[in-house]
């Protein structure tokens, strides 16, 4: 169930249309589909509340700086201007939050790569033989590919020469 929650909670699950589509997709795999769908909807709503709480301080800071900038320009704060500033602050807050989330994901990925490399190094130090993938040693892969290409070309030339000799021998 955790795998399905991770997958489905990235979708916008807010209303009856989404509930119906989830029901159709999941009814063949789970016996208690209604409970599963309710759980998915609850998880998505909980995640939206968490995101909204993360956006509040970011949006407040941006709104304050936009208000300061508007007052420095001598603009009069009308309800329309305040609404526009709120909308702009909200849009910028979403972008900033997404950038932070992406940076966090990149940092986690780099940490996992460092851990894997440390494990590989430890296994090498312990004497285990480790086969490197082509992307870890591109220059050696290139040389090996070049060597295989030259061998294949030589075999093809030899084959063609043998055919030519047979053709000459038959004449």
Automatic annotation (TrEMBL):
Where is region (Disordered) located? 111-147
Where on the tree of life does the source sit, at the highest rank?
Eukaryota
Q: What is this protein called?
A: Uncharacterized protein
């Amino acid at each position: 169930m955790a795998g399905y929650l991770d997958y489905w909670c990235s979708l916008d699950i807010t209303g009856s249309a989404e509930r119906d589509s989830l029901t159709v997709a999941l009814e063949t795999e789970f016996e208690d589909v209604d409970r599963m769908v309710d759980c998915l909807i609850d998880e998505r709503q909980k995640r939206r509340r968490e995101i909204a709480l993360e956006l509040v301080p970011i949006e407040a800071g941006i709104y304050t700086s936009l208000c300061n900038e508007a007052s420095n320009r001598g603009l009069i704060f009308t309800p329309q201007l305040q609404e526009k500033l709120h909308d702009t602050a909200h849009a910028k807050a979403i972008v900033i939050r997404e950038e932070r989330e992406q940076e966090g994901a990149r940092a986690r990925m780099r940490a996992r790569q460092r851990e894997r490399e440390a494990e590989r190094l430890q296994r090498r130090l312990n004497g285990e033989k480790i086969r490197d993938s082509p992307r870890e040693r591109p220059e050696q892969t290139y040389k090996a590919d070049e060597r295989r290409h030259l061998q294949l070309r030589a075999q093809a030339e030899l084959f063609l020469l043998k055919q030519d000799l047979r053709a000459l021998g038959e004449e």
